Amino acid sequence: MKAKTSETHIDASNITAPTQFIKTKLETYAYRHLGAGDGAPLICLQHFTGTLDNWDPALVDALALEREVILFENAGVGRSTGEVPETMSGMAAHAIAFLDGIGLKEVDLLGYSLGGMVAQLIALERPSLVRKMLLVGTAPEGGEDIMHMEKPELNRILTDDKIQGLDKLVKLFFAPSQSSQAKGKAFTARLMQRKEDREPLSGPKVAGAQITAFRAWERITGERFANLRKITQPCFVVNGIFDNMIPVRNSYMLAEHLPNAMLLTYPDAGHGSLFQFHESFVKHASLFLDSE
Amino acid sequence: MKAKTSETHIDASNITAPTQFIKTKLETYAYRHLGAGDGAPLICLQHFTGTLDNWDPALVDALALEREVILFENAGVGRSTGEVPETMSGMAAHAIAFLDGIGLKEVDLLGYSLGGMVAQLIALERPSLVRKMLLVGTAPEGGEDIMHMEKPELNRILTDDKIQGLDKLVKLFFAPSQSSQAKGKAFTARLMQRKEDREPLSGPKVAGAQITAFRAWERITGERFANLRKITQPCFVVNGIFDNMIPVRNSYMLAEHLPNAMLLTYPDAGHGSLFQFHESFVKHASLFLDSE
User: Fold this and answer.
1) ipTM score for this prediction
2) A-to-B residue pairs, Cβ atoms closer than 8 angstroms
3) What pTM was computed for the model?
4) Which of A241, A264, A284 comes nearest B256 by C-beta?
């Protein structure tokens, strides 16, 4: 399946792919389009405050070797217009408007962290749109200890003036070990390889609305995990075993209550396991996406 | 690396591979030798009461397409001589004597259930012997709810006269769903494809000694999981999400405390996830074994 735009601005890498824009019935969304392939395109849904520039080229470029990969920027983030919704379902509505806008009828989703919650709601809201899902470093509705930036171990990093800029991401997304921190440094260096056409950084307004959405997502309403049992698509749940932002037990809950989910965890890794183990992740995720 | 015997009786399939015997300083062990390859041979360590005939040809034949696979029968099981040890470390000593006997200096281990416990002790006792481990449907020392055959949900199957022979294995190793049970029936049909040179079935003496070893393995002695932290080999932990014999939380413990372990779980599957998902298992396990 091809997105409407697929003949125009396809690039092989998130270092150079131009940011594109599409006006839809809701908002005008920024996105980037990588690679080509005959199967379902893989739509990438980003983490807390992340923009298109937070997609590791080592990860998404490798995924795009065998498939269309589309990086999507939700409303109010980067150069996408509108307000950041304060609910995950609000964000899912924007993602669906975007997919309708570019004319895609069936896609795979890579939902990372916040994006994984949005992915689950897209699958619930419009099941026919979703073929398979990669749910990375994320949690079910009614999950536990989701993105509590006020926790001492996270707040210490956020408020430490000696840790600046992307180094905060290294501390937050990677395990404390030397080996994981070194992989984190390599990750942020890769993010900076893109020199032009970058997105504006997210400010406190984006963060505030998304945190409000996290708090609502944590609440248990009705029978716990009942919604997970309605998601029948094949899912591949992935997490670092030492994720401090969304602990791995949330991934266990997903694997135990989604009817058709495999779970893969990585050692010596935190929230950013997909970037730390990008080569392994691409291989195992591709096996999953390409299986019958 | 080649086992001493590798030029003699290699076969492509556990349906036809002859049972071989090697006399060592401890006992004479029965084994089978499949496939060929330049890497470390994969030594398969069997489950509770299982013999060489319990290795699914769909699994081990596929693994043997790219590597040497050696199925090992521990002391007192099948046609291996000696008494079944009442401790996992006793079983590990036999496995080491076997590997020394056939002249292997470095191997990969596929330890399934009971065999996964033996594998952990081989890695602790003789670290240089073990390159990588696949630990399937198993538990760490100090794990929980390990092989309690007296539990109502297991005892009901064991004592039901209407469930005979290998059908008990279908009920015990597979999830209650129709889909999993159908995969279980296919599994036991594959086990019966081997018509000649079969091993004698295990009796109550084998079961009793192995259950004694399980009970000892469950005990927490000293700092819990301290031994896991000494196992530095890359490990790939696999389990069905609905394993009733050795619940999946034991696999979580392995992944959380082994320093270098990936975890993969399968949906709609019990203790026999590697047989139910043999194609997927072989692909993901091969990625792990073949990675740098």
Assistant:
1) 0.96
2) 53
3) 0.96
4) A241
